[in-house]
Amino acid sequence: MNADYDVIIIGGGPAGLTAGLYCGRARMKTLLLEKATAGGQAATTDAIENYPGFPEGIGGFELTEKMKQQALHFGAEIQEIKEVSSLEVEDGLKLVKVDATAISARSVIIATGAEPKTLDIPGVAEFRGKGVSYCATCDGAFYRDKVVAVIGGGNSAVEEALFLTKFASKVYIVHRRDELRADKILRERVAESGKVEIVWDAHLKKILGKGKVEEMVVENKNTHDRTSYQIDGVFFYIGSVPNTEFCEGVVDLDEREFIRTDESLQTNVPGVYAAGDCRANLLKQVAVAVGEGALAAVEAEKYVEENFD
Ligand code: NAP
User: Fold this and answer.
1) What 3-state DSSP class applies to 290?
2) Which of 49, 89, 204, 254 lies at 20 to 30 Å from 100 by C-alpha?
3) 5-115+240-307 and 118-236 share one fold
4) Annotated catalytic residue 138
5) What is the pLDDT of residues 2-14, one digit of tens each?
6) What is the reported pTM?
7) pLDDT for 166-191, tens place per residue?
8) What is the CATH number of domain 5-115+240-307?
9) Which of 49, 155, 218, 235 to mutate to test the pocket of ligand 1 (most atoms within 8 A of CB)?
10) Catalytic residue among 6, 23, 46, 139
11) How many CB atoms lie within 10 A of CB 192?
12) Could you tell me where the DSSP H helices lie in the chain?
């Protein structure tokens, strides 16, 4: 059956780029579509310390740029600023729609990652880009000698709060419980930093200011007392939602809209695989995404060999 490509990889983060490298190296005709620029969320991380091979850590942008070069080197075609709007399957052929054009492929690997979650409270939408941010690596340097708040208590919140201490005079972590979810090594660093104050059992209620962020109001979940803090910026790190809207109704999603797969990373649709943060997996890490990208690529290659001449 004729198709434009053997495989289309949707998403250019670590999972997609690794799939691109493996598919290219397997001499599959490979197209990788990325809605922004390749690298994904990992590219906006200042330093990645737990990806093997880099004992001193490596910048997220540098690491993903190397992954992109490696995929290109082995022949994957990468198209950036190409957002996929839908995925359809017709007689075993997969049709991926981009800018009103349908591109056909024998197999598809979905590696669309996830987007940061936000809070629907006053000030969040109004001050986006004026003190409300989702990327400390991108915006941290604007807060030299200023006071910022990080919302969340997971690895991202704590890592980024520590990164912000390089610039800010003070960093509040606003967390809804009395214990951080983040790994012990990060909790230890927070305790040693001297610049981070944790506001425990706290819900951010509103962000105020005249044209830019100037104040946050936080409510204690036990006493319901509200406290105001003078701040210059708020960074949200409260988890993420998967980018799976475009394939809703085609591939099976779990209750949080992550893609369900079998052990070979195949979805309910034969020849359609998922890898990385958009998949219902147990650990969101670059190392995991890379492994899943490799496995999805090898399985896609087998599928194409067995099902098409
Ligand atoms: P996460 O682990 O899901 O943590 C989200 C944090 O935000 C939690 O502390 C959660 O509170 C809080 N939260 C969620 N919804 C909230 C709401 N509506 N209001 C207030 N707070 C809310 O997300 P993540 O930190 O982005 O990490 C995602 C994944 O990537 C995790 O698996 C993480 O381990 C991994 N990661 C790893 C590293 C690393 O290894 N260095 C770095 C970054 C991310 P609760 O704790 O009360 O649930």
Assistant:
1) helix
2) 254
3) yes
4) yes
5) 999 999 999 999 9
6) 0.84
7) 999 999 999 999 999 999 999 999 99
8) 3.50.50.60
9) 155
10) 139
11) 9
12) 14-25, 60-73, 136-139, 155-164, 184-193, 286-307
